[in-house]
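User: Run a structure prediction on this.
Assistant: Running it now.
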Amino acid sequence: MPEDKIDGENMHIRCKVIIEILGKPKGHVEETLRMYVNKIRMDSEIIVLNTEFADAVEKENMWAIFAELEMIIKGMPKLIAFCFNYMPSSIEILKPEEFALKKSTIENFINDLQARLHELDMIVKRERNKNDFLTLNLSKSLSNVILVSLAFGSLDMDKLSKVTGIPEKELEIFLDSLIKEDKIIKDDSLYSLVK
């Protein structure tokens, strides 16, 4: 390793990180952030020099809060591990200005990153499949509620909405679909089952 390069494997790195949390209610979000920062403080490989907590701000029915931590951590591998373990929203390296890394450090980082991305991809696919399954079954259930409601006689949109508990705008989507499937008919403003 050239003498003018600083050993990034073992050099103490001084940095500022931002940890953000979004959720509700406000008190829970504030308490969760404090507990998370305390967990970071308990990490034996991190020295937290300073912590500043921002006030919680309401954003789109949720509460957002963040903390800025100034800390020292030994070596790039441990800084990378910190990023994977604690998921900061941003990081600013204050010192040193530059350093050298071993090829294995970069390879390990890239492999860890790829493993996390594959894990997230699997979670997204699994949740998408669950969502599709639930959406399909909910749609079938709501259609059945409409069909059962019409089994007792013809109803207009207003009464059908009250009986099923489905708002008229959403109900219209299901009614149109059931008409296309030849399960119900619309005569003037009344809906009834196909006989």
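The two ends are 85 Å apart (CA to CA).
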